[in-house]
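User: Hey, quick favor. My workstation is busy. Could you predict this chain's structure for me?
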Amino acid sequence: MPELPEVEALAAFLRERAVGLEVRRVDVAAISALKTYNPPVTALVGRRVTGAGRHGKFLDLGLDGDLHLVVHLARAGWLHYRDAVGSAPLKPGKGPIALRVVCDDGSGFDLTEAGTKKGLAAYVVPAPAQVPGVAALGPDALAVDPATFADRLRGRRGQVKSALTAQSVVAGIGNAYSDEILHAARLSPFALTHKLTDAQYADLHAAMRATLTDAVARSVGQRAATLKAEKRSGLRVHARAGLPCPVCGATVREVSFADSSLQYCPGCQTQGRPLADRRTSRFVR
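Assistant: No problem, here it is.
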């Protein structure tokens, strides 16, 4: 799933490549991905791209006339920018492409989604706050101060892993970077938010800032096509179950759930004890 660093890098890439270009054509191949109908998606045609940014994990393409194309890439979505886009319109329901935007210099981008479980969402709105998911976001993970961060996570009451990934608590962190942040902070993903000390919250905030800042620095400047590989190259525990922890050498372990999993280092995070699978055993906190 694209998270804060990758979405920030995609926005930076669009600012560099697309700002100033005029939208000449918009094709929608997956009607289910388009979540708004007024204004219609055709309202983008004839407008120039004025900027690109993000709100948490939402990508925001700004166009003149106060119009925005806001996209949530969900779990398996991505943006592919092409210097030359074919002239043939997309056929609805064919292939992984959900939406295509073509600009006046012949370039453009496809919003794609792999797999059968579709979650990619595109909104055409006068203001990003009109997107329900954007309106519900908590403070950005790279902007929230330590005290506010601690207060919001304590107010969530539950496992710290779940609190970090709740977009209404703090925006921008998903499954992968929450694993990385907790590893850097030397905290169990099953630790309870109301039992963390002030010092642990300070360490967690510092780990969040350092992890995300480093990931943004490595990601911004990459082309969209190389961002996924860049993300994988910087991970220490996420998606590395069975491999040695680069910090302490212990074997990275995994806890699986119905539709997701987490990875952690017992040596760094749980005093050497393996976490139990929630489906069969009690937690180790």
